[in-house]
Each structure stands twice: as C-alpha cells, then as structure tokens.
Design brief:
222 residues; four-stranded antiparallel sheet; 8 helices; 36% helix; 27% strand
Length: 222
C-alpha cells in the first residue's frame, strides 16, 4: 500500500510561515525514492511529515493504509518503532554505550533486545564492524559511526526507512559506502527507502527522484 500524501502542507510560527504547500505523492512499497532540491526547499520537512515525525498543517499522510493524523501519540510511537527506521546526518549514538548496545536501542524500547541480538550482530558483521562491536562511538571513525546508526535503524527490520542527508557529514568514500548499504537493504529486504540528499550522484541511485522548489513539487524524474 506504500506511502500516500494527499494535499499536505506545513506552516510554522506566528504569523504563519508556509514551508510546504499542496503536495500530493505516492511512494510504492519497496521503492527507493530520493527527495532533492536546494537548501530551504522543504525536503527535510517533507520527510518528517511523510514519516510522522512531524504533523501536517493540512492534508493527510497514510502509510500502509494508516492515517497518521488520526493516530494517538502512543499508537504512533509504537507504529514508528515497529514499522520505521530513521537515519540522520548526525549519528546521535549514545556515547556511553558500545556499538552493539546502540544498535539494540530500538529493540530495548520494545523489550525485544534478546530476540534481536543475533540479528544485530549480523548487521554489524555485514557492515564490516565485526571486530568493533564492543567499541564506543569515540573509538570509531565518522563513517563507522554512521554505519552503526544505520544498523540501529534496521535492527527491527522496518518496512520503511527514512534518511535525512545520511552522507552530509561524511567524506566521499564513506558516503558512498553508506549509500551502498542503504541500497542493499532496500533491494534485499524490499524495504521502502526515502532519502533526502543534496548530492546529485547519490540522488540518481534512486528508482525515482522527487524535486522540491520553494515548498512545492517541481518535477518528478524516473
């Protein structure tokens, strides 16, 4: 059923400042979509609305047939934890925890840590971090920290993964590694992947690009 946005918009502040206006789109299950546009075009805001991390000012967003705007906060929290994964420009790892402990944080929230432990180990091994599972973030490079963050986003095997500039703080080589990992997760697990990026080469890896300009859809490219 995928993600469906119908005439969504977003305003903030008083007096209201319009960030997004009248956006309708559909993202199919298993599709890899990139959201692109100049700085300030509204692409990160759109990602937050599509994922339920922020609420729309008008319109509606449905994921797998569920209207996010009609969910109670607790219900939406559990839906996101079970069905979605999130990767941001900065890894937001907990400094006091090891790599494997950071990866297992979403499982801990739902009391499934023991159940997901073997899968978490497998993710870090797949990401080339087998010998660094017990290291803390400060003992890892920037690219390694971001790989841990991606493993954390994948540990619950979400149907939908949202990434906001996941390579923005990395060098080119590390950024390419991160994008390859995201693509592999999308292909192998038929997981829907929505990525905000300002890098044209990375945007072109997607099945489809959605371009924003001044808070509105500018053009779709497939």
């Amino acid at each position: 059923m995928g993600i469906v946005a119908q005439h969504i918009g977003k305003t903030i502040g008083d007096p209201p400042n319009r960030i997004l206006k009248d956006i309708s789109l559909e993202i199919r299950d298993g599709e890899f979509v990139s959201l692109t546009g100049r700085s300030g075009s509204g692409k990160s805001t759109l990602l937050y609305l599509l994922s339920g991390l922020d609420s729309v000012s008008e319109g509606r967003v449905e994921i797998s047939g569920n209207d996010l705007g009609k969910m109670e906060s607790e219900e939406l929290y559990h839906f996101r934890n079970q069905q979605m994964g999130f990767v941001f420009q900065f890894h937001y790892l907990i400094a006091e925890l090891t790599a494997i402990e950071n990866v297992l944080m979403p499982a801990r929230k739902s009391r499934r840590q023991d159940e997901r432990l073997s899968f978490a180990h497998g993710l870090l091994e797949d990401f080339g971090l087998k010998d660094k599972m017990n290291r803390r973030p400060r003992q890892l490079s920037g690219g390694e920290q971001q790989r841990v963050a991606i493993a954390r986003a994948l540990v619950m095997e979400p149907r939908y993964l949202f990434a906001d500039e996941p390579t923005g703080s990395l060098d080119l080589s590390s950024g390419q590694t991160v994008m390859q990992i995201l693509m592999q997760a999308n292909r192998k697990k038929t997981m829907t992947l929505v990525v905000v990026t300002h890098e044209p080469d990375f945007a072109q890896m997607a099945d489809r690009q959605i371009l924003l300009a001044d808070g509105a859809l500018a053009k779709r490219r497939s």
